[in-house]
Design goal:
33% strand; 10 helices; globular; five-stranded antiparallel beta sheet; Hsp33 domain; six-stranded mixed beta sheet; 2 domains
Length: 304
């Protein structure tokens, strides 16, 4: 593979709103890289998020995309949900399924204004946890891991999840840039492939592993500016990091778009599960139940 320098992205290479997968066969490593642009703006436009919450939600959406892309089968869904007490942000939730991405954050606007322009993760969340859920379509199984919301970023919390719950060494780097009301967010996820899958000793049983240390140093050299540079294709980014490796395999992945799945019929089916006395309490003066979708900010007036 080869990568260009600056200017427009060459035809056939990957720019905004599309995943790129790659593997380093000689190093037993795999990775995902993504840069969100127009799709991210469509998600964020559902609410008037202030800059600190915009940056936080953009990071979360990139993380959800990267982690969701690790699922191979169609119909699988990955959800990350941060819940906290004592902080400004009380809830943050994002999910990814087959290229469809959505997210929402609830926060206290008055308290946020006191924190300044660049509040820390601890100031935003206080004490909380991050729940990461994988729903497998082929088996209808659900796996969930929960880690404390600690460290300087959501990326560090997700690295802790993979280390604790999956025993898979993982490096995550995220970048967000807002310019003129438009937001660009990019991310890189690199993992050591589990040796146990091929009958060899699992990596986490060893004190160290030179292959992973080498990959982590190279991947960790990615700069924030590269993650959010719209003129740098994802292929070129991977090439800059790993061009000294004997072999780098890349594979374009799913196209990303806002994918809110709310609909009138969906909410009707949900409401029909409630007892009539509970539905009666939900009705307004006109006898209708008004449902407000937090993800896309649409309102549905439902008459059952």
């Amino acid at each position: 593979m080869d990568g260009g320098e600056g200017g427009a992205i060459p035809s056939g290479e990957t720019g905004f709103d599309r995943l790129l997968s790659f593997t380093l066969p000689d190093r037993n490593a795999r990775g995902r890289v993504v840069r969100l642009g127009p799709a991210l703006d469509r998600i964020l436009s559902a609410h008037a998020y202030p800059p600190p919450v915009t940056g936080l939600l953009a990071e979360a959406l990139v993380l959800t995309t990267l982690m969701g892309s690790l699922m191979k089968d169609e119909g699988c869904q990955t959800t990350i949900q941060a819940q906290a007490t004592g902080g400004v942000v009380s809830l943050l939730v994002c999910d990814f399924r087959d290229g469809e991405l959505r997210g929402y954050a609830a926060f206290d606007e008055d308290r946020l204004g006191i924190l300044g322009a660049n509040p820390s993760l601890g100031a935003l969340f206080g004490e909380g946890y991050l729940a990461i859920t994988f729903d497998l379509s082929a088996t209808d199984q659900r796996y969930q891991g929960i880690v404390p919301l600690e460290g300087s970023s959501l990326g560090e919390a997700c690295e802790a999840y993979f280390a604790q719950s999956e025993q898979v060494p993982t490096l995550i780097r995220l970048g967000v840039r807002s310019n003129g009301g438009q937001c660009v967010a990019g991310g890189l996820l690199v993992q050591h492939m589990a040796d146990g899958e091929e009958g060899r000793e699992r990596l986490h049983l060893r004190a160290d592993h030179p292959e992973w240390e080498h990959v982590a140093v190279l991947a960790g050299s990615i700069r924030h500016e590269e993650l959010v540079d719209p003129a740098l294709s994802l292929e070129a980014m991977v090439w800059r990091l790993f061009h000294e490796e004997r072999e780098v395999r890349v594979q374009p992945g799913a196209t990303i778009d806002r994918g809110c799945r709310c609909s009138l019929e969906h909410y009707k089916s949900v409401l029909r599960r409630f007892p009539e006395e509970e539905r009666a309490a939900m009705r307004d003066d006109d006898g209708k139940i008004v449902v407000d979708c937090a993800f896309c900010s649409k309102k549905f007036e439902i008459d059952l």
